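Q: I'm writing a short methods note and want an example of a predicted protein-small molecule complex. Could you take the sequence and the SMILES for coenzyme A and return the bound structure as C-alpha cells? Please keep the output block clean; save any remarks for afterwards.
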Amino acid sequence: MQTTERAAASKSSSVLEIKPVGEEHREWLNQKMKEIWSGRFVVTRGVAYEPAKLPGFIAYERGIPVGVATYHISDAECELITLDALSQWHGVGTALIESVEEEARKQACSRMWMITTNDNIDGLRFYQRRGYVMCAVHINAIDQSRKIKPTIPLVGNYGIEIRDEIELEKYLWCWIGW
Ligand SMILES: CC(C)(COP(=O)(O)OP(=O)(O)OC[C@H]1O[C@@H](n2cnc3c(N)ncnc32)[C@H](O)[C@@H]1OP(=O)(O)O)[C@@H](O)C(=O)NCCC(=O)NCCS
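A: Understood, no commentary inside the block.
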C-alpha cells in the first residue's frame, strides 16, 4: 500500500501520515461517516453518495486517524465528496485535500470541485485559501437534498439556516506530452 508522509504545518512538529482508504478501513469509515454526517449518505446536487464505499485518504497522527477525505471521479472531473478533520487547524485538511488533488491529477482530471452548504463559513474560507472559486450558488437546493436525506439538520454552523449549496471549483494543471 502506498503511504506518503507529510510534515504538518510548520507551526506543528507532528508528522501526518496519509494512507489511501483500503478494504480494511471500510468498517471504521462507515462508522465515522454515520457519526459526522448523520447517516450513511451525503447528498450533493441531488445525488446520494455513500462515502464509506468511495475512494479516499485517511490522515494519521502517531498512528491515530485524525481526518478523512473521500472523492468521486467521473468525466475527468474529481468531486471531493467529504473532507473531515477530526482534529482541526493543524494541517490535516490541507494534507488530505492535497492528496486528493494529486490523485485527481494522476487520473488526468482537469477539474476539482465540491459542494458545501451556505452555513459552512469555515469551509468556504478553507477552500478559497486553497485556490477554489465559488462557481455557482444553488439557491434552496437543500430542500431537494432533504427529500433524499431527511436527517439534514435545519440549522448549521453559527446558527445559520442550512438552505443553499455552494459549488466551488479549481482547474488542475495537467501536463500533456509533446
Ligand atoms: C474545513 C476543514 C476540513 C479544514 O481542515 P483543517 O485540518 O482544520 O485545516 P488546516 O489545519 O489544514 O488549515 C486551516 C488553517 O489552519 C492553519 N494551521 C495549520 N497548522 C496550524 C498550526 N499548527 N497552528 C495554527 N494554525 C495552523 C493553516 O495555515 C490554515 O490556515 P489558512 O487556511 O489561512 O492557510 C475542517 O475544519 C473540517 O473538518 N470542518 C468540518 C467539516 C467540513 O466543513 N468539511 C468541508 C466541507 S464538506
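A: Remarks, as requested: Residues 6-12 have pLDDT under 50 and may be disordered. The longest strand covers residues 64-74.
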